[in-house]
Amino acid sequence: MEGSWLVVLVIFEMALSVQSQLRTGFYSTSCLRAEAIVRSTVESYFRKDPTIAAGLLRLHFHDCFVQGCDGSVLIAGSSAERNALPNIGLRGFEVIDDAKSQIEAFCPGVVSCADILALAARDAVGLSDGPSWSVPTGRRDGRVSLSSQASNLPSPLDSVAAQKQKFSDKGLDDHDLVTLVGAHTIGQTHCQIIRYRLYNFTATGNADPTINQSFLSQLQALCPKNGDGTKPVPLDKDSQTDFDTSFFKNVRDGNGVLESDQRLWDDAATRDVVKKYAGTIRGLFGLRFDTEFRQAMVKMSSIEVKTGTDGEIRKVCSKFN
């Protein structure tokens, strides 16, 4: 008798374990239209403003690096994660809220905000002429969102060693680091973030010597010393709205906009990956980056996920139930 109970218990635990894992098509029976609704919502915002794609990708990235990919960055409130200093300037909250309200009309209480964010990031890349991939779903939403926990997010001021450590802490290796930073091919920053590199690098009163001289002139023209600090600066000078490998060519050639991006060329391990993606055979290396970016995104979007009975399925993405 005890033996049969043991078998039942083992089977039950195995079922729970399987149930608690992310899987592609998680909503295929419980909310068939979920992925299509997310896609059409992202598309409608993208048509009005293609730069929203980078915003959604960054939103997902920042979510996953604090508390895992659990939608904690979406919570509104003075002490919530989204109000932490590294999260100032995050965009795309309204896209997630819009998709969530549409999905709730069809399948109330079924689809998590964390999954909507992961799907929206994938669709944003696809709309920017980047790769698409199957997003494993089944995440649940976290019940904690504190700005104090966002202090260890990757920063544009980070050395390569600091970047490596922060990614390693989340189970991501050096290759993942460079591949995921490649998302900056569709990103933008602001003059106030990079001005120190142009006029007073390491308090010397000079520019960062690693910036290509002709590119330095372009950046200084775009961001005058006492000009508007909120002026946007593309992170990929050649093709801001196209998801391609030109970002890596820029890093190779001293045309990286953020200090943390340009520093990837200073380290042997990260330089090798940059070189690989910046190769001269455009089709081959673009294809390789597309493939490896898909893999890195699936890996990143699985960081510390809440599944099974952990967490909750929020009714509104900006508020705990």
Would you write up a description of this structure?
This protein is mostly helical and 321 residues long. It has 13 helices and two strands; from the N terminus they run αααααααβααβαααα. The chain has helices at residues 2-19, 34-48, 52-64, 93-106, 113-127, 160-168, 174-181, 191-199, 213-222, 246-252, 259-262, 268-277, 282-300; strands spanning 188-190, 232-234. The protein has a two-stranded antiparallel sheet with strand order 1-2. Helix 2 (34-48) packs antiparallel against helix 4, helix 4 (93-106) crosses helix 5 (113-127) and helix 10 crosses helix 12. It starts with a helix and ends in a 21-residue tail after the last helix. Residues 4-20 have low confidence and may be disordered.
Radius of gyration: 21 Å
Low confidence ranges: 4-20
Major β-sheet annotation: 2 strands, antiparallel
How many E-type strands?
2
Structural class: mainly alpha
Number of helices: 13
Helix-strand topology string: HHHHHHHEHHEHHHH
Mean pLDDT: 92
Cα shape: globular
Binding site for Ca(2+) 1: 63, 66, 68, 70, 72, 81
Binding site for substrate: 154
Subcellular location: Secreted
Domain Plant heme peroxidase family profile: 21-321
